[in-house]
What we know:
This protein has 397 residues and is α/β, with parallel strands linked by helices. It has 14 helices and 15 strands. The protein has helices at 23-34, 50-61, 75-89, 104-116, 131-139, 160-166, 189-201, 242-245, 259-269, 278-287, 292-315, 341-352, 366-369, 381-394, and strands at residues 37-38, 99-102, 122-127, 143-148, 150-152, 155-157, 171-177, 205-209, 235-240, 253-256, 319-321, 328-332, 354-355, 357-358, 372-376. Strands 2-10-9-8-7-3-4 form a 7-stranded mixed β-sheet, sandwiched between helices. It has a 4-stranded antiparallel β-sheet with strand order 11-12-15-14. Strands 1-13 form a two-stranded parallel ribbon. Helix 3 (75-89) packs parallel to helix 10 (278-287). The longest helix is centred in the last third of the chain and has 24 residues, at 292-315.
Amino acid sequence: xxxxxxxxRPLLNRRLAEFGTTIFAEMSALAxxxxxxxxxxxxxxxDGPEEVREAAVRALRDGRGNxxxxxxxxxxxxxxxxxxxxxxxxxxxxxxxxxxxxxxxTEAIAAALLALVEPGDEVVALEPYYDSYAACVAxxxxxxxxxxxxxxxxxxxxxxxxxxxxxxxxxxxxxxxTPHNPTGTVLTREELAAVAELAVERDLLVVTDEVYEHxxxxxxxxxxxxxFPGMRERTVxxxxxxxxxxxxxxxxxxxxxxxxxxxAVRSAKQYLTYVSAGPFxxxxxxxxxxxxxxxxxxxDDLRAKRDLLAAGLEQAGLSVFRPAGTYFVTADIRPxxxxxxxxxxxxxxxxxxxxxxxAAVFYDHREAGAPFVRFAFCKQRPVLEExxxxxxxxxxH
Length: 397
């Protein structure tokens, strides 16, 4: 077959040249090939509430959403999102001008960065970060500036002085994720107040990824950054249904922000997917109205699974950072005499029949994340018990 082109120029846009196949695809393929328990990619192995699934079936049968839904999202979902923000956090948003439905939080992040960042702008993000952040900043032509969360006193902590020092005259935007994936850290009110003060002082925009807002444990509390003085008008708040209701395949997310910000994000979003997930939007509108008992039960279930997996990892000899939020546990492999998380994760399926994700892939400063490994605990209890047994039996080796 003849070559597609004789040009020496690479086919892939140079902004994306550093991004290959995601680690999630690699490790999931490894899990399939070895028959391992996949604690790598963060998706539940059971569906969410039956009444929410039935709401989607009803919408399909009633012909709601089977054709293109409205560009901003169906009115029922936008109204439900606004009601959720008001009920949970005292934040008042106009469903018609301040709520935008997206194809999951991933599209919301992409659309926000493409809309708000120009070539040369700096975007300060908390490191380690979800891998799409770096790719989206690159696609927008921005320059990412990582501020590293560092382990201290059993959790990964934000150094506020380091954050302040990272902001320059070229900084356009802060990209904040709390509860934080992959470390499980939940930023405190004091930390968020300092972030807000910095954003106001330096007149920065903020994009905040809050998809794990309902997955917080023990004494942790999720506080939206938009609730702090001076922040509502400069913050794009992002969340989604996937993590909260265990329907990750539906890809229903949303943005809440001031009208000017929503208009900007929508301008980019309309050329990405335009619209998506029509019938599922109606179902998620009903999900957002579930009683508080649902959220309490979700947290209790995941907290028990967190403790089960954390104990298993500790028994296998790893040092564990017990998360205050999300459904991920980060472990340090150095007590096992190892320091390369990528090599460890590639070998773990053969050694123990378990798949995890090396945290280094979430860092620009790879050495800072080298000894850390992320495990997902959003699985059925017998699966976690078996994973813990395998890890202990293999001694992590």
